[in-house]
Amino acid sequence: MFMLVDWYVGTWSAMLICMAECIVFAWIYGAHRIDRDIRLMFDRPLPVIIRISTAFVMPIFLTCLLLISIFTYKPPSFGEYNYPVYARAIGWCFTLSSLLPALSYCVWLIVNEKGTFRQRFTRLAKHTKEWAPANEKAEEIYRETEHLAEFTWRQLFWFNVTGRGGIVMKGIKADSVPML
């Protein structure tokens, strides 16, 4: 069983979940918003290595790794022992058990949203306006700077590459926003 979990969950699920997280954080929520959130919490910008690796390096690396895994897939084995078909089916169930809840929820959201498929997907691929920091002072600053965070894809790409064009929050010090 351990080999099956390692073979299926450790490969497929981990790669797909990590790839989704990189895309969501760097491109949907936006690295510029994460940069603002880091500045609110720590009075420092998002480190360059984090910004570039989350937006470019990891998605490209994980996509290549996923494609290599797909094209070089071989059924699991342990030494000379080849797992039977039912064991492979159990392994794929392990993989689906970690992916299916998130995928099902995404499909449910798309089905229950109004408009054309493109409108639904576009609306759901944006961050929610209801979210805000719990701290009142941080929420005030967050709300004041949110209108500056509406980036086009080109602006977001430029920010991910250079770190320029982000949300400027001059005069905001970490100690002016009391931590919870």
Account of the 3D structure:
- The N and C termini lie far apart (43 Å).
- A hairpin with a 2-residue loop joins β1 (77-78) and β2 (81-82).
- The protein has one domain (2-172).
- α1 runs antiparallel to α2, α1 runs parallel beside α3 (85-112) and α1 crosses α5.
- The chain has 6 helices and 2 strands.
- It has helices at 2-42, 48-71, 85-112, 117-124, 136-146, 153-162; strands at residues 77-78, 81-82.
- The chain has a two-stranded antiparallel ribbon.
- The protein is elongated, with a radius of gyration of 21 Å.
- The chain is mostly helical and 180 residues long.
What features would you highlight for this structure?
180 residues, two-stranded antiparallel sheet, 2 strands, 68% helix
How many domains make up the 3D coordinates? 1
Taken as a percent bin, the fraction of beta residues is under 5%
- How far apart the termini lie comes to 43 Å
Spans of at least 5 consecutive residues with low confidence? 173-180
**What is the N-to-C order of secondary-structure elements (H for helix, E for strand)?**
HHEEHHHH
How confident overall, as mean pLDDT?
Answer: 85
Based on CA atoms alone, the radius of gyration comes out at 21 Å
The major beta sheet can be summarized as: 2 strands, antiparallel
Per DSSP, the total helix count is 6
Overall morphology: elongated
E-strand count: 2
- Looking across the biggest beta sheet, what order are the strands in? 1-2
